[in-house]
Amino acid sequence: MVQVDKTENTAFLEKSIQHLEATGFEHIKADMEGYETPKSFIRKGADSKITPDIVAMKNGRKYFFEISLKSEKPSLLKSKWLFLDTLSRMRSNRFRIITTRGHYKFTDMMLEDINLSNKTPIKI
Hints:
The chain is an alpha/beta fold. It has helices at 3-6, 10-22, 74-90, 104-113, and strands spanning 26-30, 41-42, 49-50, 54-58, 61-68, 94-99, 122-123.
């Protein structure tokens, strides 16, 4: 999720965290109040930071989770997803996308645009 959308969608972020806790994820860090903030990555050449929505551990492996909701800035979202996917592959981690009803088509189109159509979004 882009920073602009985070303030509007904290309820879905909370629901996603509860789903991850129920499926066995631990040491959950999220970019919201009440949770430790995940590590941010600074984009060179620009003054913007990339912070994963949720970072969690399961079976000794780190997972990066991104919330996919319709956004006003899809290009920022695409670059963030590409960066997190590349980072997770470099470090043998996992990158997953979480979406909800009403946003499936948007998510599929975004994944297809950036050639990540092999990713299957988690539908909550």
